[in-house]
Amino acid sequence: MNPPVVNKASHGRSCRPPYPTGRTGAFTLIELMAVITIIAVLAGLVLSIAAFANRKAAVSRAQAEIAELSRAIEAYRLDFGQYPTSSTIRATNLLNNALLHQQLVSRPGRYITFRPHQLRVSGTTTNILDPFGNPYNYFRVYVASSDVATNRTTFDLWSFGPDGQSNTVDDITNWR
What is the C-alpha separation between 162 and 30, in angstroms, rounded? Predict the structure, then answer.
């Protein structure tokens, strides 16, 4: 048997280059696409989690604002013997919202203080906004019964919630 031929210049090593011919040590297109895909998936997860957290925070803030408005309305009732007025038509919520704002801040005692982002001024009308940018809805309700002694007045205060639509499961109310 003949001994293997060894190139003297390589000191006993093979003459083959350390990497396949044509490859320069850079990443392949497939490797780059895999990394970009992984980064895109992770970014999508982070953004969806952030959106969920923001929505949950806005819902919590709306619940807290409804509770604060409810306390102000109750304080108004203690001072004046009745809840702030509203139109007799429940569908006129912008008017009711403006009436509520006017009665809570223009009377002696100022029952609540609003931050600028909570209000939308349009001409002479000021509406109280929920965290989703929609006006809160207010309606004074008269609950009648057959016994005149148990007749009472109460109020409904609600936000249409994140979707901005009426009568959906995400509505935020003072009665639930």
Answer: 41
